[in-house]
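Before the break, one more example. Copy the sequence into your notebook; we will annotate it together after we see the structure.
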Amino acid sequence: MHAYRTHNCAELRASHVGETVRLSGWIHRKRDHGGLLFVDLRDHYGITQIVTDIDSEAFKTIDSARAESVITITGEVVARSAETKNANLPTGEIELRARDVTVQSQAQELPLPVFGDQEYPEDIRLKYRFLDLRRERIHNNIVLRSRVIASIRQRMIGQGFTEFQTPILTASSPEGARDYLVPSRVHPGKFYALPQAPQMFKQLLMVAGFDRYFQIAPCFRDEDARADRSPGEFYQLDFEMSFVTQDDVFAAIEPVLHGVFEEFANGRSVTPYPFPRIPYRESMLKYGNDKPDLRNPIVIQDVTEHFHGSGFGIFAGIVAGGGVIRAIPAPRAGEKSRKFFDEMNDWSRQEGFSGLGYINIKGGEAGGPIAKNHGPEATAKLIEALGLGPDDGVFFAAGKEADAAKLAGLARTRIGEQLELIDPNKFEFCWIVDFPMFEYDEDNKKVDFSHNPFSMPQGELEALESKDPLDILAYQYDIVCNGVELSSGAIRNHRPEIMYKAFEIAGYSQQEVDTNFAGMINAFKFGAPPHGGSAPGIDRIVMLLADEPNIREVIVFPMNQKAEDLMMGAPSEVSLKQLRELHIRLVEPAQKS
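Here is what the structure looks like once it is written out:
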């Protein structure tokens, strides 16, 4: 018999009754029923119930072992009585009657329990992450992550992609987020950077003639944490393709994303492909952002024209000053009390806006200050234009276009949640396309890139030379699911003359382009194919599939919101010897007075 186990803790069935077996695992929980002691023994695979009586030597050993101690048990598989069978466990028809018990490792008193679903503070969970990972939900999330990655890899290979690995130590880039820098010992005063993404390398692979590349790529960015973004490092399905249009990129990745979501949807529906495509400006108008949650049926509408010269002076003044009015319908909100509308207004102020106007319709009668001052006839036209029912409501966001769009988008989400309009049993995908190539930087009073400087402008060189930069669109696209941006992507600008012109418009000289992007611009001068790609985030994909609100719950060893690893004590101080080897002298930050 094996020293530790003949079976795992999810393996035994009624067909094993009568056999002598050996199991090893952690004491998940104990239940003392007088003369009988029951133990749930847990390993990676599942749980088996162990039973022993007070007259057994095994009883004393198990009774003295704390929860989460690791033990090995040898005994006979016995059938449970009909009334004690557990249909929720794969092993629920049997139990193991313990004969011999060996304690492999005695657990100390636990800083957080493994059994149960109690919520614990983040610092405790992350400091003792090895215990947190033993909890069923988190353990299942990490297993799900592994299975999702395996499925993605298989599907990408099936689509004709080849997996390559790109460097981890590379050069710092002046574009994008803040780099993590790595000092060079053999080149004093010089630094490597950890890659924010394999962007340049994957494009160079296309120049090298590899055609269809992918990898499950680690990326490193020194940026703040968010619910859908891990500080420090994250993983993405990075891919690139040669001789492709935007349509070709979509056609290649949609079956992969649809297939993996459908495989792990657990009964939830998935948007069939081809996925809907929504132009950026349309998305900003209808949904108030460029990552719309299409499970929410609310569509924002521009109603600026309705308030020219309106009796509602506040809105009339905003419109006269060049502002806009956006309407956010609230289906059946008229059935709510006035408190619902007032709380929405209060919420908007807490978000930093001046307020959220509304019209409340009850039994076909429009109420509230806006309806009263706007006038019955004008209000009726407005309600008709919006297609509102006799017991609907509508909220209004007013101001400069960007501010009104932002408030309207946030309000759309909150109304959808408050009125329970969002179907949790769907995965709704879409592409956001036709991003503007450039935008006007109000702070620096100049035209700058709005999204990705290495994208191909629609119309190529001719557009750059003949059109207003703010009217030029790019072959840039985002893939969005349930309001979560999974990735950005683009058809790349592979022609040096177009790249120089695009950067010139944004205020960069040819010398600056040659210096900052030398590796890529030089390669393009030796024959580069048209190419494009994207990089859906692995962490975000798993977060959606696991139905977790925070990305931390699907990462094995995440850092906290301050980019600290509380378990390993990183970042940490290093010795003076190490600093000398790296030719580094520390400069302490100035003390605050």
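The chain has a mean pLDDT of 93. Residues 189 and 438 are 36 Å apart (CA to CA). Try to locate both features in your own notes.
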